[in-house]
Write a structure and sequence with these properties.
Elements: E1 2-14, E2 19-20, E3 22-23, E4 37-38, H1 43-58, H2 62-69, E5 73-75, E6 79-84, E7 87-93, H3 106-111, E8 114-116, H4 117-121, E9 135-138, E10 142-145, E11 157-165, E12 176-184, E13 192-201, H5 205-216, H6 218-221, E14 234-246, E15 251-254, E16 268-270, E17 273-277, E18 289-293, E19 298-300, E20 309-313, E21 323-327, E22 330-332, H7 339-342
Parallel strand pairs: 8-10
Antiparallel strand pairs: 1-13, 1-14, 2-12, 3-4, 5-13, 6-7, 6-13, 7-8, 9-10, 11-12, 15-19, 15-22, 16-19, 17-18, 20-21
Helix pairs in contact: 1-5
Length: about 350
């Protein structure tokens, strides 16, 4: 792989010990959703935050929404990073095809959710991930090259369970409920932690300046739930231009939640379906549920295809007031990983 394509990387610098709540769907008991969380802000959460902040600052968001629909702005979900001085470890979602690897430690490999960008760039396959001479496993979820890990890092985050009280209810019983938050671990040696996401935009200068202003405001506006209680805020936002890997064999894995059109579904070779939406505003009003393809899906985007994905209307009245971002953000898959399914066939 050669690095050619220009891209912007946005780092959301976490507060030391900062807490974040990114809800996930468990559509049986709504209260249970508060304890089922995503550990990172997904692309639809970032999209919603950008649109909401844009509306506060600039008013009607139709122009920026149309830029997203036309693929003039693309963004990934936000994943974990560690930074020590000028050195960074950026973690990506584990390509789901890694679960096909045959190993005596299959259960341990399956628990891994994030793989460092450097490890993937070197094409190191899962049969070497638990080789302590090559790789380091953190929190049983993060795998990276042994040479990447800053001294003193033993954990990146943990889940913190809080007991809370329902305020807006007339019920006397069952007013207590539990909420799970993601809490970044305190790091030694001035090691910085946070989330980052990729941003690919083709905007005129005036709209680019507005978009970047909105993104910087995420630090103070926050992401996810429980922001009035101090969750979801960041120390700051840093943006820099990077070179993005380019591939010529057409195989990618996804870095965003994806909602393909009917004509695009056949491009996915391996994927996991997740459910989003469903938020209730009152006893009669609820956003639609929508199926999405989770990050890490394997997709073929050959030279004759221009895959895009969709932004889906999930508003109850189909009037476009609530949108779910399902555009594809693709990352080149190292050629070594194709062997994982070729061995199966």
């Amino acid at each position: 792989m050669e690095k050619l394509k220009a891209m912007t990387i946005v780092e959301l610098i976490a507060k030391p010990g900062g807490q974040y709540h990114f809800g996930s769907i468990l559509p049986v008991d709504e209260d249970q959703n508060m304890t089922v969380v995503s550990s990172f802000p997904q692309s639809d959460v970032l999209f919603s935050a950008i649109i909401n902040i844009w509306t506060k600052v600039y008013g009607n968001p139709d122009s920026i929404i149309n830029r997203f629909k036309a693929d003039e702005i693309k963004l990934s979900s936000a994943f974990f990073y560690l930074k020590e001085g000028n050195r960074s470890i950026r973690f990506l979602p584990k390509p789901i095809v890694a679960n096909l690897a045959r190993s005596d430690n299959h259960k341990k490999l399956k628990k891994i959710q994030f793989v460092s960008e450097e490890l993937l760039a070197n094409g190191i396959l899962p049969d070497q991930w638990l080789n302590t001479g090559i790789c380091t496993l953190i929190d049983n979820q993060f795998i990276c090259l042994k040479s990447e890990v800053p001294s003193g890092v033993s954990s990146i985050y943990s889940e913190k369970l809080l007991t809370k009280v329902k305020v807006h209810t007339t019920e006397i019983e069952h007013r207590l409920y539990n909420q799970a938050n993601v809490q970044f671990s305190m790091q030694e040696n001035n090691i910085e932690t946070g989330y980052y996401f990729f941003l690919d935009e083709k905007l005129p200068d005036d709209e680019k300046d507005k978009l970047y202003t909105v993104i910087r405001l995420i630090a103070d506006e926050g992401l996810g739930g429980d922001r009035t209680a101090g969750c979801g805020l960041f120390e700051g936002v840093r943006m820099e231009n990077i070179s993005f890997p380019k591939t010529h064999d057409g195989y990618f894995f996804t870095l965003s939640l994806s909602n393909p059109s009917k004509n695009e579904k056949d491009a996915f070779l391996f994927q996991q379906i997740v459910t989003r939406g469903g938020k209730k505003f009152d006893s009669r009003t609820q956003l639609k549920y929508v199926n999405m393809i989770a990050e890490g899906a394997i997709i073929y985007n050959g030279p004759m295809r221009n895959l895009s994905g969709r932004i889906v209307d999930i508003s109850p009245q189909n009037n476009g007031t609530f949108l779910r971002y399902g555009k594809f953000f693709l990352y080149p898959l190292h050629k070594n990983y194709t062997s994982l399914w070729e061995k199966e066939n």
